[in-house]
């Protein structure tokens, strides 16, 4: 991929995390209060079923298990652990834990994908965590051990999902592939919703509009461009784009909700954006010849090598965190 194509791919992929950054704004303004799991199920499951119906492709063979694993990691387990963490930790702590994800992805990519772990990527990951912490943390915070563990586990779950998505590729068009994951992830969340929050009550027209936005724009579109970026860019490079979420969330709070931004928050925003840019330059692909060999073994697509696969083969917390 040439520089122009890579830049365009980065820009399009970044639209996903940018959309996720609006989750807090939409949830607090239009959705029922204190129903984060309901919001998650209605984000993922209807959008997933719609995309599956649109793509008219069901998983085949081993892809039933793979789609279930990816949907569980990227959507189901991630959302459930994220909400648990957000309710047990002060506002902003969960977002800071989520900013560790690029470091986890970089390490897993080196182990599983053979992508080189560079010093620049590690440094950029550390700067990203510091930047998000300055942006979203408040002066006095108390830390809960279970909340911390859940927040780190949420970041690790999605990080592993990103790497496995990159490793396995996709056997069907993008929208169908996205639909598989959203459907499985939503189904994982349904029993948790019923156990924790119970059945939903009546909803207003404004709430229906909010759910529709979260399902179609925030989730269906957001995750489609995210998965597209994973297959075209190094996994660690994609994960750094997740730093856009808290930046967009803070900006939306300032523009729409008249929330103030302190000098330190602006410094944190600058550090997060700087880490994002450095993360694009600090990640490296492995040897293309190794990619070609693995593609022949797995039957996945490797851009630029002319290989083709077989044809049949949110959230809300107690503060404006911008988490997916």
Note down, in words, how this protein is organized.
The model is unreliable at 286-321 (pLDDT under 50). With 324 residues, the chain is an all-alpha fold. The chain contains 14 helices and no strands. α2 (23-30) packs antiparallel against α10 (205-232), α4 crosses α9 (174-196) and α9 (174-196) packs across α10 (205-232). It is 72% helix and 0% strand. The longest helix has 28 residues, at 205-232. The two termini are 28 Å apart. The chain has one domain (12-298).
Topology:
Blueprint: H1 3-20, H2 23-30, H3 36-55, H4 63-88, H5 93-98, H6 101-113, H7 119-136, H8 145-168, H9 174-196, H10 205-232, H11 235-240, H12 244-256, H13 263-281, H14 288-298
Helix pairs in contact: 1-10, 1-12, 2-10, 3-4, 3-9, 3-10, 4-8, 4-9, 6-7, 6-8, 7-13, 9-10
Estimated helix fraction: over 70%
Query: DSSP helix count?
Result: 14
Query: What is the average of the pLDDT values?
Result: 84
Please tally the β strands and state the result: 0
Number of domains as seen in the coordinates = 1
Q: SSE order in H/E notation? A: HHHHHHHHHHHHHH
Characteristic key phrases:
single chain, 324 residues, mainly alpha, 14 helices
């Amino acid at each position: 991929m040439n520089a122009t194509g890579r830049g365009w791919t980065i820009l399009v992929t970044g639209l996903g995390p940018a959309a996720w950054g609006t989750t807090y704004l939409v949830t607090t303004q239009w959705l029922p209060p204190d129903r984060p799991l309901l919001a998650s199920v209605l984000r993922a499951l209807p959008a997933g079923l719609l995309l599956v119906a649109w793509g008219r492709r069901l998983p085949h063979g081993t892809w039933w298990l793979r789609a279930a694993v990816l949907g569980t990691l990227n959507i189901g387990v991630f959302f459930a652990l994220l909400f648990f963490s957000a309710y047990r930790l002060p506002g902003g702590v969960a977002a800071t834990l989520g900013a560790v994800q690029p470091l986890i992805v970089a390490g897993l990519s080196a182990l599983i994908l053979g992508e080189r772990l560079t010093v620049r990527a590690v440094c950029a990951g550390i700067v990203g965590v510091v930047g998000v912490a300055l942006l979203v943390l408040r002066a006095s915070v108390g830390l809960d051990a279970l909340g911390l563990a859940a927040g780190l586990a949420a970041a690790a779950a999605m990080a592993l999902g990103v790497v496995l998505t990159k490793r396995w590729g996709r056997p069907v068009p993008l929208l169908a592939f996205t639909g598989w994951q959203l459907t499985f992830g939503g189904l994982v969340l349904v029993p948790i919703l019923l156990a924790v929050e119970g059945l939903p009550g009546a909803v207003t027209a404004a709430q229906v509009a909010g759910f529709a936005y979260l399902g179609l724009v925030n989730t269906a579109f957001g995750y489609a461009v995210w998965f597209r970026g994973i297959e075209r860019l190094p996994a660690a490079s994609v994960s750094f784009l997740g730093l856009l979420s808290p930046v967009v969330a803070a900006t939306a709070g300032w523009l729409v909700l008249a929330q103030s931004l302190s000098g330190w928050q602006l410094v944190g925003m600058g550090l997060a954006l700087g880490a994002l840019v450095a993360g694009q330059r600090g990640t490296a692909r492995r040897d293309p010849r190794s990619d070609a060999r693995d593609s022949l073994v797995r039957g996945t697509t490797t851009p630029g090598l002319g290989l083709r696969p077989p044809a049949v083969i949110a959230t809300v917390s107690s503060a404006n965190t911008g988490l997916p």
